[in-house]
Amino acid sequence: MADAGTLTPRQEMLLRLIIKEHVETAGTVASRVLVERYDLGVSPATVRNEMAHLEELGYLLQPHTSAGRVPTDQGFRYFVERLMEEGSLPQNEQRTIAHQFYQARNRIEEWMPLASTVLAKAAQAAAILTAPRTTRSIFKHLELIATHGRAVLLILVMEGGTVEQQMLALSEPMTQNALREAADRLNQSCAGKDADQIKQHMHEFPPLEADIAQLVLSTMQSAEGEPSDEFYYHGLSDLLQAPEFAVAEDASNALVRVLEERSLLQAVVAETLTPSVGIGSVRVLIGGEGRWDELRTCSIVLARYGVADYATGALGVVGPIRMHYGRAISAVRFVANVLGELVYDIYQPDFRSDFQVESLERTDDSLN
């Protein structure tokens, strides 16, 4: 008899087959179907007994007395952790995805829409992504724009493309020319420096520029490590056609709310991809894991991508609980690796790995 933590080889085989059938059909799975389709070499009665044990252990559920059984969230968790064969995306799909990113490698603004599109297609689920955010802000450029009276708009651009805006009030009005000259001096002094390096030169600035530099420091420090609040999506309309959502309005509405409520997604990403989770590591949430009731009808596969200690983002896919986990995980991991190479190229140009950069170039050449 298996305990709640370990199943016998036959029980594991049956759980794997039941999940395979349920993923493909979205319906219940009967013992007779398993015996006939997979030539198990045992009677339907034996399979029913094993399925009853799996139900007692919490891995299966019988929706109706006369119906077959379906996997529970616990059953899917056991499958993901112990039985799943992850594999990898087919080589032709990998080449196609790498080629698309190679073409867009110098156009950062295209990365997120492209990544969401290819990830949704590869994983056959709805894709969600956040843009990479710096974990160490580097000053690039500053603009000061006079608005009215003593009010000035400060626009701070950091390496990697992050832009922050702040309003500040001067002790007395200044002309736009004077503001431009102050900004030019700060740009010359601060370009390419992080907050700690700028702080070391604070004593060199005249009073006005020191006040502006202090605001710049505060802005840079608050941006460091802050998760992006902008999510990119693709594939939601296709996902809503899945039986779980197409015939259940409550489930469909819940899924839409999950993807539209940024605060919920931010909380899920922040709590799932904690700083201790390594770049490229994949995390799987099944049915909300008892923590997020809004996610009880779906599963999420998430990964962090980018360059540790420089810039990172999150990406993943959302689907029904009967998701094809092996394919989803391999797709998430592959796209995370490709995005990581591109971010590495942008944030560490002086320390690029020739192998990483050339891997996309070789892929592109092989397709020409």
Question: What is this structure, in a nutshell?
Answer:
The chain has helices at 9-25, 31-38, 44-56, 73-83, 91-103, 108-123, 176-190, 195-199, 207-223, 236-239, 243-246, 249-260, 262-272, 325-347, 354-367, and strands at 60-61, 70-71, 126-130, 133-134, 139-146, 151-158, 163-169, 231-234, 282-286, 298-307, 311-320. It has 368 residues and is of the alpha+beta class.
Distance between the termini: 58 Å
CATH class of the largest domain: Alpha Beta
Q: List unreliable stretches of 5+ residues.
A: 349-368
What is the alpha-carbon Rg in Å?
Answer: 26 Å
Number of individual domains: 3
Q: What name goes with the CATH superfamily of the largest domain?
A: GAF domain
Give me the count of strands: 11
Description:
With 368 residues, the protein is α+β, with helices and mostly antiparallel strands. It is built from 15 helices and 11 strands. The chain has helices spanning 9-25, 31-38, 44-56, 73-83, 91-103, 108-123, 176-190, 195-199, 207-223, 236-239, 243-246, 249-260, 262-272, 325-347, 354-367; strands spanning 60-61, 70-71, 126-130, 133-134, 139-146, 151-158, 163-169, 231-234, 282-286, 298-307, 311-320. The strands form 3 sheets. Strands 3, 4, 8, 9, 10 and 11 form a 6-stranded antiparallel β-sheet that branches. Strand 10 (298-307) and strand 11 (311-320) form a beta hairpin. It is elongated.
